[in-house]
Amino acid sequence: MAEPIESSRKRIRWGRMLRMLLPALATLSLAALLVFTIFFTLLDWQWIAFLSGILCAAVLSLVSASWKAQWSVARRTAQVAQIRERLAAETLTHRGTSERLDRELALHQQDRERLAKETEALRAAEQRASGTEDTLRMLERFPTAACFVDSELRCRFHTRKFAALIGKHSKQIDGQALDGLFASDTNEALRAAFVDALAGRSVHAELSTSVPGAAERRVVGELVPHRGGNGHVTGIMVVFRDSAAAPPLAPPPEALDIVARHHDAIGDLASGLLVTDESGNAVYLSSITEELTGWSDPQTRIRNAIDQDGFDLYTQDIVPLRPELRPARMLELLIRMRDEEEHHLPPGAFLPAAEHFGFMPDIDRWVVKKIVAAFAATDGARRQELPLVCINTASSTIADRAFTGFVAGTLEQARVPAHLLCFEIADNDVIAGLADAARFAGEMKRLGCHVSLDGFGSAGVGFDHVKSLPLDFLKIDGRIIFAIARDPVATAKVTAIRRVCQGIGVRTIAEMVESEEVLRKLAALEIDYAQGFGVALPHPLGALM
């Protein structure tokens, strides 16, 4: 294609040169002929005059052609100059437009980033509010009669035990002045105690309470002030105990550690339980685990549960959103702990303490042994239908270099294939310890197990650490999934995550799917799997195996 164009250009150039040279050559030929005629022939002067006229005409023609050529060149030069000027003006205009567009795009990007931050902040606030509500519902079940009053001495929180103590319904307590909830003589004692508590001093007061139809009851009220960020007393925690009971238990050191390490999970309410005495020293009324479970020694209780099979396993289905996906059946293991009355405690009641005391590798080993034993007990006909089971792995377990060997030995001894297990690593744990996570994931993949990244997006949508891991599955954080029904930013995040995962060969799982609307949207976004209460409720392991 280029050669014909080049040859055409050459022909055009040669044609222009010939048109310029031919008149000059003709004139020179005539001049030479005239000179030859004059000096070397005997022609008459008439012929010489005739030839001289022709020569003059040729010269004039040549001069005219030259003038026309110069005029044409000048005209074309002027046109080129005008075109250049217009081009320069348009270039300047384009450059100005481009710079203005760049500024507008930068402002738009700033607006998008600001909106994204505000959206994240709002979502975080909603989550904290939701977490606080959940925590309040748990704290209501405390086995202690307690309430929290603000600086105006109005009750802002109380336990069910407190409602039973004064014989009133929750609606009669919330927002009411505390001195209006007791008899007059008790109110007098409380008022005097509140004066000291509002001054920043811890107060011990003996009170009497009575419920209609019941005998009078003597109790001890412990009033501990809570200071805000400015150092002023913003509320008072009041704990009621029987006067015959032992004095309040001093907070163990591990209680403060647990609160410090899990402050975000406990939420703003935790600061309501972290109080100060009159000397300004921090005092935590009791361990969160102790209040939730009623245990005075959670370390021993959790150790006994590990040694004596005090846990039960539950499962929740992870369903494919397209029929051709494999594996067609996946489950996530959930752990529950049994108390003395054979009631199940949720993970949030004992796992923080288990992590604090260093028990998580032992609990994860217990889980692996139980699920492998369940696989091994399945008869041959049903083994082909066994699901892929996902096991949550703690950060301390990931750092335990002996854990992979334990898994390999357990599978080999039970003759259970490794591809039935999938170990889930939390996104935050990967970011905090990428080297350990990469080593752990690589060892599990070489063993034949699957590896999944859990809670992706909770710390921001970045893929650098994802590309460093040999992943099979990636679980998108439930907060993002929960928001896609109403938030286009969340939908864009899910779309971006899906595209990257498709590019690197990782299948996606949506967590916390709570409705059919979200499920349909996830299918439209080409997410691979879904999990949540809107898909399937947890069930005991035995019922699904």
Characterize the structure shown.
By secondary structure, the protein is an alpha/beta fold. The chain folds into three domains: 116 residues; 124 residues, 2-Layer Sandwich (Beta-Lactamase), CATH 3.30.450; 174 residues, TIM Barrel, CATH 3.20.20.450. It is 54% helix and 18% strand. It is built from 20 helices and 17 strands. α1 runs antiparallel to α2 and α11 packs parallel to α14. The longest helix has 95 residues. The radius of gyration is 43 Å and the shape is elongated. About 8% of the residues have low confidence.
Short description:
The protein has 545 residues and is α/β, with parallel strands linked by helices.
